[in-house]
Amino acid sequence: MSESRVIMTVTDGVADVRFNRPDKLNALDEAQFRAIAATIAEIEARRDIRCVLLSGAGRAFSVGVDLDSLASAPALRDLMPRTCGEANLFQQCAWGWRTLPVPVIAAVHGYAFGAGCQMMLGADIRFCAPDAELSVMEMRWGLVPDVAGIALLRGLVREDRLREIIFSGRRYQGAEAADIGLVTHVAADPYAEAMAMARIIAAFSPHAMRAAKRLLNLPWETSNAAMLLAESREQEVLLASENHAEAVRAARDKRAPTFKD
After folding, report:
1. How far apart are CA 65 and CA 114, in angstroms?
2. For residue 142, what pLDDT is reported?
3. Keyword Lipid metabolism, does the record have it (predicted)?
4. How many C-beta neighbours within 10 Å does residue 100 have?
5. Are 152 and 117 in contact (CB under 8 A)?
6. pTM, whole model, 2 decimals?
7. What is the DSSP pairing of strand 104-108 with strand 111-113?
8. Could you say which of 16, 60, 112, 161 has the lowest number of CB atoms within 10 Å?
9. 124 is a domain residue
10. Residue 23 carries which DSSP code?
11. Which tens digits make up the pLDDT trace of 178-210?
C-alpha cells in the first residue's frame, strides 16, 4: 500500500481508510488505483478488521479518473483480463469494497464523480453531506461507467432511475441522492456519523457480521430455497460458536461482550 496515496489506520476493529491526493481532489491515476486495490487486498487478508470507513482527504471524496494521467496508462490498453478475481484493476477499486468480508461505510463530502462515485457505491452504507455532489458522468466523456458502477447500482436504485443516472450524467445533491438510493443517509458531518456507525458494527460478533455479509452478497437471482438453506447453514455454525456463547453470557451478566476475531 502506498501511504502517500491511501492512508489506513486500524483502531478497535475499524479500518479508517482515506484517499490521500487532496491537491487533485483525490482524482484517480494508475498509482491511485493500484494503491486502493492493494488496500482492499490487505483488509481482506486481515482478521483484526471488523468494519471499514472510506473517506477522502481535503475538499472531496473523489472527482473520479484523472483523464490526463490515465491517457497513456498501460493498464488501460486492455481492460479484459480479470486481474482481481471477477474484476479488472479499475473495477476492483469499487467492486472490491462490496466483496470484502466485512461491512464498508463511505463518508462523502464535496464531490463524488465518475469512478469516485462508483467507489462510493461499493460501500454497504453511504453517508453524504447535504451539499455533496454525486454523479456517474462517464456519458459526458463518450464512455460508459465501467468501474463496476452498473453492477453496483442495479441493486440500489429503481431501474428507470438507474437509466436516468447513467444516460443523463447529471449531478445529484444530498437529499435527492438519498431519495433515489445513491446514498443511505444525509448528515451535516458524514465522517462523524459514519465513524459512529462503524464503531457500533465493530462491537458486534465479527463472525456473525461476516456471515451476514456473505448472505447479503448472494446474487439477486438466488432462489428462495437456496437463500433459506444458506441462512440455515450460517446460523448452524454461529449457534455453536464461542462468540455466540459470549454474547449470551454478556447479556446475562449485564456487561459488554468480548468477542474473538
Report:
1. 7
2. 92
3. yes
4. 23
5. no
6. 0.94
7. unpaired
8. 161
9. yes
10. G
11. 999 999 999 999 999 999 999 999 999 999 999
